[in-house]
């Protein structure tokens, strides 16, 4: 024996015991020398999702990361050198918000650095605190707090992932804000810029007024909001009457640039090409035709404002209209009225709105329209979808800003087709998830906006030359040399300039924006795999074998990574994508922090044990949602029962000595091993196809047959060393245990390792995956004998006798083939049933017990 078998095996304490052993032994380290020897074909590499280090992990992380670990453990046991890194997604808006709430601070980049700064408090979420109550601090102070808090979060995340038994190589980790990461992200961007794939433009931008940052299309979500239609009169310029429009956003009247109706709308065809004057502001605007105008919506004619929604942007661009932005970055009406508002009445009306929030401006302009008689009606409130930043609290506005973009195929048919083609060349698990990727790619409406007006992130490595007036000359973009990376333009100086030329005429100015967090996360293969940093490693792991992730970020993480790989290497970044489903609560509602129904995993793991939780996760197929009820986690309880049974069954099997030179000679033993061969083949095919649930299903079903039927049938023979069949039974039990533990090892990582240590050297997780032994046996013998055992047990139960009750005579009737099989296991059946005489009769139909006589003293 390799380790002492405990008197009473338990699950408690196995996580700490084996995590320490794996770390000490380097069980999961990527063996680079072995990988180099075997080449790329001998490596299995994973583009692991980097969790956002801005809070706590939830049960969904346990669910999806376990799915990946199952496949990884299988491939490792199959002999692959596994590259399984872990990253931490530190930067971005979620981290900033958490820091603001946790420390009670907010960033003000105009403030100087304070080396002795101490935050007003530390801890709690303080979500109810107002921004005005948060202490303003310098950008550097703010970033230091971000780094401090994310570092602490990452330590907790790693601890939980170790408790979960993830077979990650913890020496292969990265952070999305480290110097190496910043260099890689900046280098990739500069190469995009050099190839013309990155560009800057002044354009309407979806804007979050709380975060004061631009938001990309992939980060949007629709939320139902209440609104009312306001019927407003526009006046025909020729004085012949009014045209009535209906709008939910009357506060944008000062930004109106046109009215638009469908070209087929007979009501408005006579007015196309004519003009009307806006209510209150008396600005002349054209009446135009566009097919996006809906004839059955409101009055059938709409006002185009710059900008009320994304349709306004399309109309503005395609109809070549002027830009009269009235909203500032803070979401308030700008102080200066558009130049076209020249009348005294119009300017006075605008002054009533200046400085107000959108909500307050709407209330005031409705009052003004009522006073002027130009508000004709207000509809009953209704709900409609409104665009939000997925992590924001208020509806997005649209403001005109200068931003950096990356071409993504929205306006490049050749690139879009290439992205679709590469997606079709991948294997998707489940396959229908490919459609979501294709729908997103085909539905893109604009290039990828990658700049953010935030603080904690990868700086955009650009400076601008200043003209003679000290204004930015956007045609003079100054990029660093690759050897300078990483750079922070706000503190570093471009080649050919000195610090005293910063911000002065003829000098330079820094780009202060940072990259969207997805612009860095889209490079996770490059970050983990040593791209442009370690060529040998990159060639060993890329393109990666597996991208595991959630279905909700196909449009963000999966698509953006595919885009970066396509632009840089002209290939897909992985061969396979494994997409996990959602965790839903008992009411089948998706778990999310916003709904307040998220379950944190620490208590579940501590109470039920890791293997039980891993079993619950492994029971769900990829792409399928799984319900989780923390009050009654049925699947978790089943998993715990299985893990305990594995330990007890292993102890029992190991109690039977295997004589030297033992061979499998008994028909029932051979039948069991032949059945196990089929299970091994089925489980192997399932894991190869990323169907871990099927692999667990077939393995678990056989395991219970092995314990409940076969082990009971042969234990008397295995005990009795005088029996000629003892060696066969003991050997068959030992062979089956070895295979079963390896089949279950990906799921029950701790219990399998513990039981393995009782009779084998080394870790089960680097042992060879079981192979069919091709033993000459008939699985039908085990099936028939198990059915007979069930019949014998039932007969004793119906006779209200103990299963240990001796039987004088018992008669079984079955078809001739079944009877022939039962005769080959007759001795084991008599032993387990304590049967003196077993009568086997030929008949028709299913096997049945026709006669049972209990021993007289027990009757």
TrEMBL record:
Where does the Methionyl/Valyl/Leucyl/Isoleucyl-tRNA synthetase anticodon-binding domain start and stop, copy by copy?
Answer: 669-809
Please provide the record's keywords in A-Z order.
Answer: Aminoacyl-tRNA synthetase, ATP-binding, Cytoplasm, Ligase, Nucleotide-binding, Protein biosynthesis
Q: Does the keyword Isomerase apply?
A: no
Top-level class of the enzyme under EC nomenclature: ligase
* Position of sequence motif 'HIGH' region: 51-61
What main location does UniProt list?
Answer: cytoplasm
The question of whether Protein biosynthesis is a record keyword is answered with yes
Reaction it catalyzes: tRNA(Val) + L-valine + ATP = L-valyl-tRNA(Val) + AMP + diphosphate
UniProt-listed Enzyme Commission number(s): 6.1.1.9
Q: Subcellular location, in the record's words?
A: Cytoplasm
Domain comment from the record reads as follows: ValRS has two distinct active sites: one for aminoacylation and one for editing. The misactivated threonine is translocated from the active site to the editing site.
* Quaternary organization: Monomer.
Q: What PANTHER family is this protein classified in?
A: VALINE--TRNA LIGASE, CHLOROPLASTIC_MITOCHONDRIAL 2, VALYL-TRNA SYNTHETASES
The similarity comment for this entry is:
Belongs to the class-I aminoacyl-tRNA synthetase family. ValS type 2 subfamily.
Q: What does this protein do?
A: Catalyzes the attachment of valine to tRNA(Val). As ValRS can inadvertently accommodate and process structurally similar amino acids such as threonine, to avoid such errors, it has a 'posttransfer' editing activity that hydrolyzes mischarged Thr-tRNA(Val) in a tRNA-dependent manner.
Q: Which NCBIfam families does this entry report, sorted A to Z? A: alt_ValS, PRK13208.1
Name of protein: Valine--tRNA ligase
The organism's taxonomy opens as: Bacteria, Bacillati, Actinomycetota, Actinomycetes, Micrococcales
